[in-house]
Design brief:
It is a single chain. This protein is 57% helix and 13% strand. Strands 1-2 form a two-stranded antiparallel ribbon. It has 61 residues and is of the alpha+beta class. The chain has helices at 4-15, 18-25, 29-43; strands at 48-51, 54-57. It comes from Brevibacterium senegalense.
Amino acid sequence: MIDRRLTVLRMLAEKGTVTATAQALSYTPSAVSHQLKTLSEDVGVALVEQRGRTLRFTAAG
């Protein structure tokens, strides 16, 4: 089974924003943010970084 958090990460790459990702997956924006945070914690490296209201992928992401 593919981890849902990887699906969220992939969709963020496609859609570009947390809001669009949430809409595409029928999640709330806070649920998307939480999924990204827990995935980063589990792999031990930041996958995205927040700059103001914008998320950007890190080199690891």
